[in-house]
């Protein structure tokens, strides 16, 4: 991640979300490692910067609005708690007959996906 982009993001988020110095440092540290096409998982990032999941999604949406991230969806079986390993750009990209390799559950795009983000700009 470019230092200029990182500085712009941090300045925009710092006051809006009343982030502590620790949270800013952790978010910066994470973002420095982001490369083009990397997946960003809100649940992992929220633990690292110590915010609730709702705030984490709001922060990531702000970063998305800056043109750095895009929304993606990862297929997850809530029946057997396993990831399918399939990434979708939109919910309509899910094939109708997609099933879980472990329990044969037929996936529903609205119920069996987790919203994640993908880095689309790193310079």
Task: Give an overview in words.
- The protein is built from four helices and four strands.
- The chain has 123 residues and is α+β, with helices and mostly antiparallel strands.
- The protein has two domains: 3-67; 71-119, no CATH class.
- Strands 1-4-2-3 form a four-stranded antiparallel beta sheet.
- Strand 2 (69-77) and strand 3 (82-88) form a beta hairpin.
- The protein is elongated, with a radius of gyration of 16 Å.
Count up the domains: 2
Detail the poorly predicted runs. Answer: none
Helical stretch count? 4
N/C terminus separation = 6 Å
Q: Average pLDDT across residues?
A: 93
Strand order of the largest sheet: 1-4-2-3
Rg from alpha-carbon coordinates: 16 Å
List the keywords.
123 residues, alpha+beta, four-stranded antiparallel beta sheet
In short:
The protein is of the alpha+beta class.
What is the element layout, followed by pairings?
Blueprint: H1 3-16, H2 21-32, E1 39-40, H3 42-49, H4 53-65, E2 69-77, E3 82-88, E4 113-119
Antiparallel strand pairs: 1-4, 2-3, 2-4
């Amino acid at each position: 991640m470019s230092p200029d982009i990182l500085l712009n993001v941090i300045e925009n988020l710092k006051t809006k979300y009343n982030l502590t110095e620790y949270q800013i440092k952790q978010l910066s540290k994470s973002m420095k490692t982001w490369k083009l096409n990397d997946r960003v998982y809100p649940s992992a990032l929220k633990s690292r910067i110590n915010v609730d999941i709702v705030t984490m999604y709001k922060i990531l949406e702000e970063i998305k609005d800056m043109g750095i991230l895009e929304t993606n969806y990862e297929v997850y079986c809530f029946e057997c708690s396993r990831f399918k390993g399939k990434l979708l750009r939109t919910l309509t990209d899910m094939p109708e007959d997609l099933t879980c390799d472990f329990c044969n559950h037929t996936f529903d795009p609205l119920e069996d996906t987790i919203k994640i983000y993908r880095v689309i700009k790193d310079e």
